[in-house]
Amino acid sequence: MAENGKDNYDEALNEDQFLTLEWEDGSAVECEIIDHIDLDGKQYIALLPVDEDQAIIFSYNEIDGEVELGNLEDEEFEKVSKAFMDDFSDEEEKEEK
Questions:
Q1: pLDDT (tens digit, 9 = 90+) per residue, 66-88?
Q2: Which residues contact 21 (CB under 8 A, 6 or more apart)?
Q3: In 3-state terms, what secondary structure has residue 58?
Q4: What backbone phi and psi angles, to 5 degrees, belong to 50?
């Protein structure tokens, strides 16, 4: 992703931002973008479906202005989930200070 695109994305995360996921069966779900991280040279995004309490994590890539999300394998999912949880814990600690 171009640095300018990342800057725009980071700025957008400071506001409430939503993304609509369209599933293969044609259904769609509105999700709030709750965080993103860079890990091992890849970008990941955490989405929280509206009216749900569990986030969905995808790999994230932007090509020519188009967002491309990818599924994670089990081992990668565990590693990325832990990184997100660590990031959330760090943010909570900062807010408490």
A1: 888 999 999 999 999 999 888 77
A2: 28, 29, 31, 47, 49, 56, 69
A3: strand
A4: -60, 135
Q: What are phi and psi of 23, to 5 degrees?
A: -85, 165
CA distances, 23 to each of 4, 30, 51, 64 (Å): 29, 11, 17, 22
- Looking at the chain, the number of H-run helices and the number of E-run strands are 2, 5
Instruction: Give the pLDDT band (50/70/90) at residue 62.
Output: confident
Residue entry with tokens 């293969």: 24
First-last CA distance in the chain: 33
The answer on pLDDT for 35 being more than 50 is yes
